[in-house]
Automatic annotation (TrEMBL):
EC number: 4.3.2.1
Subcellular location: Cytoplasm
UniProt pathway: Amino-acid biosynthesis; L-arginine biosynthesis; L-arginine from L-ornithine and carbamoyl phosphate: step 3/3
Keyword presence, Acetylation: no
Name this polypeptide is given: Argininosuccinate lyase
Keyword vocabulary terms for this entry: Amino-acid biosynthesis, Arginine biosynthesis, Cytoplasm, Lyase
Annotated organism of origin: Clostridium aceticum
An example Gene Ontology biological process: L-arginine biosynthetic process via ornithine
Length: 460
């Protein structure tokens, strides 16, 4: 009964260790719904071209429904002697229908079957992830709206640079994740192509109607070349690349939030629900969710390399190496879903600590560029103003002063162009709002971005 469906050519059955080595059920059993969906479409097409009678088709469709039920309920367990999801489900159909069940594989190979199942599976997985990225983008937009009036130091080289709106920070990640969303959409479009009918590699002598199965399975178009069809895995690489850039972004964001939650920075309070304590130190509140997000990045990035390395140098067309194409991708799907499920409520639950941010705004001479540009407005060439303000910063550090502490005489010692109005520019909030360049941190610009962001989310 558990004879392989291809056993006719063989005098002996495979060694037990070979069966274990060969099976792919631990991963491809997840594709059972898509496999049954593919078989239904294929069966309908075989009826459409006169290979199955109406009666036969109905029996097959009913049996496939029952099999789905059996797998859903867990009453049908796959057998490793039957290698993979495709042969397990087909064997069950034959078990139920006898010779009629044996007709379903007419004109079909596991090579175009697995391509079909996988593309169906990836369309759904990609759509699910897109939905979660959208929720995350909404959370970022809401944060930006809430935190637009909070001024924080902006950093380059992790050194104080210029003051920015915290809303501007959130919008920076909004745009990064919007591009990730577009990359997932592009991966979806590449995936949305019907492979069924390519056969093992060369098509079929039977008059298979690929347009019929395409329509039935909801693919946009048919693949153009059967050799390409059974060997193509680059739609998966595209998905993995989209996932990789996404996790590069989530890990960078996590890193900032981890730093901001330290007592040294103390810019934000993380929600308790996404932190953990220490088994020894009662005082600890650790940002574990963010650290895990940073850590899980490696598993996703290696998924992309895993599949690229698998594909490198493979001759056309199908090679069994390709069976290893599911393990990394399924792992990536699982990880990306979890990351988004955690980060969305985590980001929404952050509380900015304005009181403890304030002292940071007086450190690091965040307004040095503003002072230099003030002198530019007094007609001093920028390179000179840069030097003047640099010297002023040196002077302040030496004498433990901030810009606010300087007397007008001290300012004028460095440049005669300084006037009393220099004190008017020394507000971080004003410094933020002066940066009205398109895409700058001024609140007017952040509001424009938020509006633009809302328009984009409506389209997706
Ligand atoms: N389990 C195989 C896979 O996932 C199905 C295709 C097998 N084809 C073959 N010629 N052995 O790739």
């Amino acid at each position: 009964k558990n004879k392989a469906l291809w056993s006719g050519r063989f005098a002996e059955s495979p060694a037990e260790i070979m069966q274990k080595y060969s099976q792919s059920l631990d991963v491809d059993w997840h594709l059972y719904k898509e496999d049954l969906q593919g078989s239904k479409a294929h069966g309908k097409m075989l009826h459409h071209i006169g290979i199955l009678s109406e009666e036969e088709l109905q029996q097959i469709l009913t049996a496939l429904e029952e099999i789905q039920e059996e797998v859903d309920q867990g009453t049908l367990q796959p057998k490793i002697s039957l290698e993979d999801v495709h042969m397990n489900l087909e064997a069950r159909l034959i078990e139920k229908l006898g010779p009629l069940g044996a007709k379903i594989h007419t004109g079909r190979s596991r090579n175009d079957q697995v391509a079909t199942d996988y593309r169906l599976y990836m369309k759904k997985a990609t759509n699910d992830i897109k939905g979660k990225v959208l929720l995350f983008l909404e959370a970022l937009l809401q944060r930006a709206e809430k935190d637009i009036d909070v001024v924080i130091p902006g950093f380059t080289h992790l050194q104080h640079a210029q003051p920015i709106s915290l809303g501007h920070y959130w919008m920076a990640y909004f745009w990064k994740f919007t591009r990730d969303l577009k990359r997932f959409q592009a991966a979806y479009d590449t995936t949305n192509v019907n492979p069924l009918g390519a056969g093992a590699l060369a098509g079929s002598t039977l008059p298979l109607d690929r347009e019929f199965t395409r329509e039935e399975l909801g693919f946009e178009v048919n693949t153009q070349n059967s050799l390409d069809t059974v060997s193509d895995r680059d739609y998966l690489l595209e998905f993995l690349f989209a996932a990789s850039t996404l996790v590069l972004h989530t890990s960078g964001l996590s890193e900032d939030l981890i730093i901001w939650s330290t007592s040294e920075f103390d810019f934000i309070e993380l929600p308790d629900a996404f932190c953990t304590g220490s088994s020894m130190m009662p005082n600890k509140k650790n940002p574990d969710a963010l650290e895990l997000t940073r850590g899980k990045t490696s598993g996703v990035l290696s998924g992309l390399y895993d599949l690229m390395i698998n594909i490198k140098g493979l001759p056309l067309t199908y090679n069994r190496d390709l069976q290893e194409d599911k393990r990394p991708v399924l792992h990536v799907i699982h990880t990306v879903n979890m990351i988004l499920d955690v980060l969305t409520p985590l980001v929404a639950g952050i509380t900015p600590k304005e009181e403890s941010i304030k002292p940071h705004l007086n450190k690091g001479f965040l307004l040095a560029t503003d002072v230099a540009e003030y002198l530019v407005s007094k007609n001093v060439p920028f390179r000179e103003t840069h030097e003047i303000v640099g010297n002023l910063v040196q002077y302040c550090i030496k004498h433990h002063k901030t810009f606010e502490d300087l007397t007008i005489e001290e300012w004028q010692n460095y440049c005669a162009a300084f006037e009393k109005d220099v004190y008017d520019i020394l507000s971080p909030q004003l410094a933020v709002d002066r940066r009205k360049t398109f895409g700058g941190t001024a609140r007017s610009e952040v509001n424009r971005q938020i509006q633009e962001g809302k328009n984009i989310l409506e389209v997706f």
